[in-house]
Amino acid sequence: MIRKYIALLRMKYIEMLAYRLATFVWMTGAITQPLITMFVWMNIHPEESESFVFYFMAVIFVERMTSAWDVWELDREIREGTFSNWLLRPLHPIHWAIAENIVYKWLFAVILVPVWVAAAVFWPALRPHMTGSQVALFLTAVVFGAALRFLLSYSCGLLAFWVTKVAAVYGVIDVISLFLSGRIAPLEMLPPALREWSEWLPFRYMISFPIEIATGTADGGELARGFAIAAGWMMALIGALQWLWKAGMRKNQAVGG
Amino acid sequence: MVIRVSHLHKSFRVHRREAGWLEAARSLWRRDYRVIEAVKDVSFTIEKGEIVGFLGPNGAGKTTTMKMLAGLLHPTSGEITVGGFVPFEQKPEFKKMMSLVMGQKSQLIWDIPPMETFLVNKAIYDIDDRSFRQTLEELVELLDLAPLLDKPTRSLSLGQRMRCELAAALLHRPQVLFLDEPTIGLDVHTQENVRRFIVDYNREHETTILLTSHYMGDVAALCDRVMIINYGRLIYDGELSVLTEKLAPYKRLEVRFSRVPDMDWGEYGEVAEIEEGTVVLRVAREKAAGTAARLLERFDVRDINIEDPPLEEVITRAFQEERV
């Protein structure tokens, strides 16, 4: 399996280099929304500018590191029939997607981490105050977040076996997640009822939770509970994905000639 | 026996929508479905090393059957085994012993050179270094791939891409090969190359091949046995020559004269064509030789040619029959 992954990663890396411009635009395009949101909040609460700067820079980083685009890929591939291509090969198609995620996120990290470090030199607000164990927990939470978003996106994508243009469904989920994952505002600013909800839904664990660890908002019992809920959602989504896969294979029409 | 299919059925439920704005709006809340039976009660077996042509008009059920054989589609009912495997179970061992090449679809990764796809396949199919090198060398030579390996796939011409597709499909040395329109859109020269390659490859490796094609040249060059499917039913399964005799029990006599006599040809045969200097007659098989002799005796014939009717004609006839 390791040999297969090495080959897939290599191929995805070469493919990524073939789309240099698209990758760059895609990377920078995603930064716009959190950046503008940050300026809006800094304008409303100028006295808390510094914490907003740190929070939204962290949003940019975590959002990129956990982003998932598989629903669009699956939607297109299943609708156009190119998905058969992966099905014919003796390796589950999900591994191609996982390899792609690893390669792109590795590239994001390679670009974002130095940018962050350079910015922190000039902008003290960006300097994190984290202990070693906090860093480890933060990174683990980022991996959890990436896994959750990937699983949700891939499972939604599999719905394309039943519905055409399934990305629209994901669009609705994405709007909900915009608020409940902490991309629009830190979750502590949400009304109490919504905040309560956000703790039980998976979205918090996609973006906000790692940042809460980095800023020290979540620690002790809260931390353990957070990881437990995230792990629970991960199990649930893995189960859903497996079921959708089995049912989808029976439904597959392998369109196109 | 490598492939065994018995009482295979496949039906699809498709959403039916009339044309027009009003109908399109209506279909938002009321959907009419109808069931299309794409494959009906198809049974056959194929032995190891056979090349079988799978023929039928568009929409007859060829590709659907082939997709079921390759494990992409789940049969509605009936049984399939390919090399001892049940295709739709999608076992990795099954996928390692077969390949499906679709002329209309690419398995090569579009934006990177073919060699990269080959390397990925090497890893995924667990091909060891030595056999990979050997197979690749053989395929590069047979298909003349050397100049193509490092160009992005999207910049290859259709013929070049098809040669690379074949190579990608054969790297793991499949025992069963499904070829769906492998020569579609290729020029005559490339078609011939691909055909020659398939024949050689089959002879060398005893690969079992099931092939669909609209080009009768492919069928004539490659297949001794053909299966004809129409409206989802298998209407003929047997030797190509038997089919020709059955459906076209005549020969074509192409007779060249210095000047074509102006006369009624009825006593010799049915006139298929008359052109300057040439008459083409359809003559019953058993009378062909005698008729030719009589023509030579009575007229100033410059040249005479006896041949089977063109395969297109035979197949077109077959497509019109309920059962051959």
Identify the notable features of this structure and list them briefly.
heterodimer; A: 257 residues; mainly alpha; 11 helices; globular; B: 324 residues; alpha/beta; Rossmann fold; 6-stranded mixed beta sheet; 4-stranded antiparallel beta sheet; transport (chain B); ATP-binding (chain B); ABC transporter, ATP-binding protein (chain B); AAA+_ATPase (chain B)
CATH arch. level architecture of the largest domain in chain B: 3-Layer(aba) Sandwich
Structural class per helix/strand content of chain B?
Answer: alpha/beta
Radius of gyration of chain B: 24 Å
Shape verdict of chain A: globular
What is the CATH superfamily classification of the largest domain in chain B? P-loop containing nucleotide triphosphate hydrolases
Report the uncertain regions of chain A: none
Shape of chain B: globular
Helix percentage range of chain A? over 70%
As an assembly, this protein is heterodimer
CATH class category name of the largest domain in chain B: Alpha Beta
Q: Which regions of chain B are unreliable across 5 or more consecutive residues at pLDDT < 50?
A: none
Fold and architecture overview:
Chain B: InterPro entries: AAA+_ATPase, ABC_transporter-like_ATP-bd, ABC_transporter_ATP-binding, P-loop_NTPase. Chain B: Residues 3-256 form the ABC transporter domain. Chain B: It comes from Geobacillus proteiniphilus. Chain B: GO terms for molecular function: ATP binding; ATP hydrolysis activity. Chain B: Keywords: ATP-binding, Nucleotide-binding, Transport. By secondary structure, chain A is mainly alpha-helical. Chain A has one domain. Chain A contains eleven helices and no strands. Chain A has helices spanning 2-18, 20-44, 49-66, 70-80, 84-87, 94-122, 132-158, 167-180, 192-200, 208-215, 221-251. In chain A, helix 1 (2-18) crosses helix 6 and helix 7 (132-158) packs parallel to helix 11 (221-251). Chain A is globular. Chain A starts with a helix and ends in a 6-residue tail after the last helix. In chain A, 35% of the residues are buried. The mean pLDDT of chain A is 91. With 324 residues, chain B is α/β, with parallel strands linked by helices. Chain B has two domains: 3-9 and 41-244, 3-Layer(aba) Sandwich (Rossmann fold), CATH 3.40.50.300; 250-307. Chain B is 35% helix and 30% strand. A six-stranded mixed beta sheet of chain B has the order 5-6-7-3-8-9, with helices on both faces. In chain B, strands 11-12-10-13 form a four-stranded antiparallel beta sheet, covered by helices on one side. A three-stranded antiparallel beta sheet of chain B has the order 2-1-4. In chain B, helix 7 (188-205) links the parallel strand 6 (176-180) and strand 7 (208-212). The mean pLDDT of chain B is 89. Chain A binds chain B through residues 3-4, 6-8, 10-11, 14-15, 18-19, 81-82, 84-85, 87-91, 249-250, 252-254, 256-257, and chain B through 12, 63, 67, 70-74, 88, 90, 92-96, 99-100, 102, 104-107, 109, 111-112, 116-117, 119-125, 152, 180-181.
